[in-house]
Structures are given as structure tokens and as C-alpha cells.
Amino acid sequence: MTNDKPASPPALTLPPPRPVPARFLRDYLRTTEVAELLGLSPRTLEKYRVIGEGPTFLKLGQRVLYARSDVEAWLQAHRCAHTSDDTYTSVIDARRARRREP
What we know:
CATH class: Mainly Alpha
Helix content: 40-55%
Strand content: 5-15%
Structural class: alpha+beta
């Protein structure tokens, strides 16, 4: 007896998630690590520290550290559903105002 049913297509599967490097699982991260996580340059984070725009940080001598929880909170505070969100427009307006300052 033959099976007249058409063969079902193979199931689609997602690739396994990539392992998270151990350095990103620590409670405190260095500037270069936070920059990599956020897709920013370390210089941008330095600028954010000067103007008070980025995540809060700890300064221990020459070393700057960011608490993972502070970075995550900063990210959540900047979530927007669309470009007319108050959060989005207030950030853009603040940046424009700083550019106009002498």
C-alpha cells in the first residue's frame, strides 16, 4: 500500500541563539563594553557623560563603570513606538537646542 499524501514541507527552525560573552553578564561594564552593547562609539559615551545624556556611571579614579541595571533603565527610558512620541521629540529638541548654544 502506498501513501498518497503529499510530503509535508520540512519544518523551519531558527538557529540556536548565540552565547552571550561572559564579560557582558557582569554587574558592572566598562565604557567599551557598553558602547558595543548600545552600538555607539566609546567617544559618544564620553560626550554623553559630559552633557548628562547617557546612562549614569561610576568614576573610580581613571576608570568609568556602568551598572548593567542603569544601562538597561536608560534604554527603557528611551523606548518609542513612533517618531511623534513625546520621548522621541523631547530628545530631538534637546539635541537641537544644544547645537545652537555658543
